[in-house]
Design brief:
Elements: H1 3-25, E1 30-31, H2 32-41, H3 48-60, E2 64-67, E3 75-78, H4 80-86
Antiparallel strand pairs: 1-3, 2-3
Helix pairs in contact: 1-3
Length: 103
């Protein structure tokens, strides 16, 4: 695999795992510290700045809503579209590394 493809795959997997973390926390918003820790424990190499960049990306895609962006710690929750993506009821948009659904 090409180096750029590895970086892209990592970024897309990170986005998918963020969505899964937020789904696990529903119906309440999940703090970025909890998300960061869950991804770190899953051996995904990322920084707090990377996490915020990916949360911002997911917000721009309409998949998450961010809270407390003016505070030291952000929180996020899935939008209805984000729930549909996690539950496989709609196609995942480009840039999200969602695995194929098991039959």
């Amino acid at each position: 695999m090409h180096e750029v493809d590895i970086v892209r795959a990592h970024r897309e997997e990170t986005r998918w795992r963020i969505l899964r973390c937020l789904d696990a926390g529903r119906p309440v918003a999940v703090g970025e510290t909890v998300i960061y820790r869950a991804l770190h424990d899953a051996a995904l190499d990322l920084t707090p700045a990377t996490l915020r960049r990916e949360l911002d990306y997911l917000r721009d895609k309409g998949l998450v809503q961010l809270h407390h962006e003016d505070a030291p710690v952000w929180a996020a929750e899935l939008t209805h579209l984000g729930v549909d993506v996690v539950e496989y009821t709609v196609d995942a948009p480009p840039g999200i590394g969602r695995p194929k659904k098991w039959a």
